[in-house]
Design a protein that fits this description.
Structural class: mainly alpha
Distance between the termini: 41 Å
Strand content: under 5%
Helix content: over 70%
Length: 239
Amino acid sequence: MRDDLQGLEISQDELQKLTNLPVNEELLIITSPLKLLANIYIQKLKSSEGATVVFIGFSTFVFVYIFFDIIIKFFVAWITIPSWILLIILGVWVGGMTQTILYLIWKTRNKIVKSNMTKCLQILLNEVKRYNTVIRVIDINDQIEEAGNPEVVIKEREGVLEALKLTKADLVRALKTERILREHKSFILSNTELFVNNLATLTAMQVTEQATEHGRLLNEALQIALDVQHEMKRLQTQR
């Protein structure tokens, strides 16, 4: 991602801090990190460090097995099952218990989100998703351009990014406001600056040439800002 796009996307961590809710949290599957480690290990095997990686991996496995075997013989010598079978069973059991705990944690956090979800928050989360999609589209377009396709260059790039910055500011402001009203339903907002948005600036920047890539991206940002503005007005009426 180019430097001028860095920091524009609203990350998962940032979104959770703004809403004070574990929104859009996915269930962690323990096999996913294992697959990642396996892929890294395979890549290392294909490199010049292959022999070293094999030696370290094999040595680690042997050390763990010997250590486990010694513990079994000293503390649970009455078990007649071969230690290597017991190690497999224990590994499967620990994996299953870990996945169950992860699921229960995810389920609990998901219930918290559902119990605190408001119509306004749902709309804002959808707007954040649309906004991040625009950022990804620009990033992919940049990669295609860097691959040797100069014809896909985004014209007036600075104008597009400026529009996205203004849109992000409005989204952040709206999420903060929604959180305040959700957590303090009887609280009357006194910070009027929360409702100041950059809609007028975005409107002035809107282009009329819908067919151009610059126009499409800029108008997409403007549409998101318009939707956010609509939700901000709804929030004001709840005071």
